[in-house]
Specification:
The complex is a heterodimer of chains A (223) and B (154).
Chain A (H helix, E strand, L loop, with lengths): L4 E4 L14 H12 L9 E4 L30 H26 L11 H13 L12 H20 L7 H11 L1 H14 L4 H9 L18
Parallel strand pairs in A: 1-2
Helix pairs in contact in A: 2-3, 2-4, 2-6, 3-4, 3-6, 5-6, 6-7
Chain B lengths: L8 H8 L21 E6 L3 E3 L12 E5 L7 E3 L9 H5 L7 H9 L5 E2 L2 E5 L6 H17 L4 E5 L2
Parallel strand pairs in B: 1-5, 1-6, 1-7
Antiparallel strand pairs in B: 2-4, 3-6
The chains are: A mainly alpha (223), B alpha/beta (154).
Chain lengths: 223, 154
Amino acid sequence: MRPPRALWVPFDLGRPMGTPDEPDFQRRVLECGLSLLARKSGPVLADFLDDAPGSKPEDTSGWVCPVKLAPADSDRTVSGLRAQLEQEMTALQPWYDLQLEQKGRTTVGVAAANICDSAKLIADFIEDTSIDSPCAYRPLALMLKYSVEDLKAWYFEAAMAQPGGSGRELLDWFWKATTAGKALLQLASSMSACENKTIQALGTKSIVPRAYERFVPSTRNIP
Amino acid sequence: MVRLKDMGLLDAQHLREKEVPGFDTEPFVEGPRLAERRLAVITTAGLHRQCDKNFSLEDTGYRVLPGDIDLNDIVMSHTSVNYDRTGFQQDVNVVFPLDRLRELQALGEIGSLADYHYSLMGAGWLPHEIEPTCVELAGFLKEDGVNAVLLVPV
């Protein structure tokens, strides 16, 4: 894009200042970028070469999941998934509450719905793709998308009640180990097969990150 | 942005194949010292206040982030799922470093911060598609006396 002055940073997408809760490092990144304003000719593309604290694969944090999750080979029917999701969220609820108390903030809320209702909508759609939107002023496609984002945010915030946990650790945990991750993989599959073009497009591109798309079941394998 | 070699193969391939149009000009101006500048932030992270309208699936609009905003009030409704949000969920400053900027202003390193900062949803737009929004924002920034803009992508 060739802005007048640019600072390249080696941080993961989504973390332009490097690492959360590392104010000294964030300030250093900012000061380095803002110092480019003094350059008298350009365009300028400078490199910030230091890796973000805790970002290297060997920087294992010791983060552990705060609750016992359902085994990978547990009931895969829709009713089994719904029951496991409810159990998992009940187990995680105290950790979400603790994190909320400690941080004083939550990023859950784009669906403007109770988180249990968001989870229920996801399970309902997997069971029956012809359901109506639960919201009078938002189409079903948007309600599914916002419910997915809220569910992920809720899980990550609950997980963050335990210290440590890099972005990649938390993403792997969510998509590979939790029932919620399993539900969203199934949701993406169901949405991708939907006749509604908006729902189909969202299911294909905007529910599961590219890195985890290989875990999305083919439609015919959903029980 | 992360090194391509540190990304997953599919994500790296996606970025390599991105359409990146060129520009006919390379605007570049000098300005006063940082300690005399008035600075605004423009983020493309799809951030907004809880009370604001979410970004829709194809949204070239902007949301206003007031300079005195409570950072605990910020949510993210960006459509893309292909970047990490856990950093933002832990500390909003990792994408919108307003606390850090307020500290630098208190130290006298930055002259002042704008009355309003702005948020867009990046990733999906070619320059000509988002240009009308950017022209509108440029007008707001001039009215606010801003002479330095920190563009923060995700």
